[in-house]
Design brief:
Layout lengths: L6 E3 L5 E12 L2 E11 L2 E6 L8 E3 L4 E4 L1 E6 L16 H13 L3 H17 L2 E8 L5 H5 L4 E8 L19 E5 L7 H14 L3 E5 L3 H9 L3 H8 L14 H7 L7 E5 L5 H9 L3 E4 L1 H8 L5 H6 L5 E2 L12 H11 L5 H8 L1 H6 L17 E4 L9 H6 L3
Helix pairs in contact: 11-12
Bound molecules: zinc ion.
């Protein structure tokens, strides 16, 4: 019999006690041969000593750890896996994606999204940030077991009277996203941010991802300008050129500690200092970046500046899998100098902080959710435990 890659542990009502050889409570605290007691799906106790109570569920000689966060995913694009070539540049990739999406039946998109979400959960991700432009994944995410935020994404232009939130349910796990500084009018971005700020919920935006975006924001001209004209998005009144996409969003008042800045690929030191000063939360999708742009974000510099990036996979149109384990492994392969402990933090506690969910998730500690995961990874040496977890397959 094949061992499952990841065992998903959900507790539900009642009392349960879990045991494992290694328990990663958080990146800085690991216990061996420990116990976790969960009551009504909330952790009530963690201990190195045996906890008395109901029957103990002994998971074995592997690792019990927090569920992973995928802070940036587009489930509604799951149908386009291996359908769009990366070889003709970003703009052509976007154009082809939109073309194919527009002619694909919603039913098919939903079926693939559902299947995609099942695979996400199976790979140990229990918290997601789904970005949805068409709105078709709302019920899929709502009716699933994952926690997180479902973002309705907007792009284009609006006028002063447009009401963006007419049918939005005011629940913690529903929020808004702007597609990017190069696809949304400044007024739209400000209105979206204003709403999420008033609700104290995270706002998500793709930022500093492509050369096309940088060229457009810094010159108001170029190939992206032509692309917008073709799509009938009128940018004449937009408050650009500006020195960089990050500086532009800063000028518009979009950057604060509840903004998730996704990608940050085209940034200089000054841009990253602004991100750090505003306590904006970076969300990195390096595998997608490499496929679409043949480059990687400057993660080492971000860490030096004290930034605490979270991780996302982006969509199956730009990466092979929706697994955060694969994302962690890719980072370590490409940034061998980064401490694997920090990569593990990106996939767990940093995601929880970015989602404003750290009181509820991100670590295995009393008061937090009883949903966590177990991997059958055996180790006799805690010294390199994070390297083993991060490269686990
Ligand atoms: Zn994206």
């Amino acid at each position: 019999m094949n061992k499952p890659f990841v065992k998903i542990i959900r507790n539900g009502p009642g009392e349960k006690i879990h045991r494992a050889k290694t328990i990663i409570l958080n990146p800085w605290h690991i216990i061996e041969n420990g116990y976790v007691k969960v009551e009504n799906n909330i952790i009530s106790q963690v201990s190195k000593e045996k906890i008395k109570g109901t029957k103990i569920l002994d998971h074995g000689s592997g690792v019990l750890m927090p569920g992973l966060f995928n802070a940036h995913i587009h489930l509604e694009l799951c149908a386009f896996k291996n359908k769009i070539s990366f070889n003709y540049g970003f703009r052509k990739w976007v154009a082809e994606l939109l073309k194919q999406r527009d002619v694909t039946e919603k039913k098919k998109l939903k079926r693939y999204a559902e299947n995609g979400l099942n695979n996400v959960i199976k790979s140990g991700t229990l918290f997601i940030g789904e970005i949805s432009t068409l709105g078709i994944t709302k019920n899929i995410v709502k009716n699933s077991d994952v926690f997180g935020i479902w973002f309705q994404e907007f792009l284009g232009t609006i006028n002063q009277k447009t009401n963006l939130i007419y049918n939005l349910r005011k629940k913690l796990h529903f929020s808004l996203a702007g597609h990017g500084p190069h696809t949304c009018s400044p007024l739209m971005l400000q209105k979206l941010k204003q709403y999420t700020k008033s609700q104290s919920i995270p706002f998500s935006i793709h930022l500093a991802e492509s050369n096309d975006e940088t060229e457009f924001i810094t010159t108001k001209k170029g190939k992206w300008a032509e692309f917008l004209k073709q799509r009938k998005i009128d940018f004449l009144k937009w408050d650009i050129p500006e020195k960089s996409p990050v500086k532009y969003l800063n000028k518009l008042g979009i950057l604060d500690n509840k903004t998730l800045a996704v990608h940050l690929l085209n940034t200089d030191l000054n841009d990253l200092e602004i991100i750090a000063k505003k306590d904006t939360k970076p969300v990195l999708c390096p595998r997608s970046n490499f496929n679409l742009h043949k480059k990687l974000p400057d993660i080492s510099r971000m860490l030096k500046l004290g930034l605490k990036p979270a991780l996302g996979t982006d969509s199956l149109a730009s990466t092979d899998t929706l697994s955060i384990f694969d994302e962690m492994k890719f980072i370590l392969e490409n940034f061998p100098d980064i401490d694997p402990l920090l990569i593990f933090s990106m996939a767990t506690i940093n995601g929880a902080k970015a989602f404003n969910m750290e009181k509820f998730a991100g670590t295995i500690e009393p008061g937090k959710t009883g949903d966590f995961i177990y991997i059958p990874l055996e180790t006799n040496n805690l010294k390199n435990i994070f390297e083993k977890v991060v490269t686990y397959e």
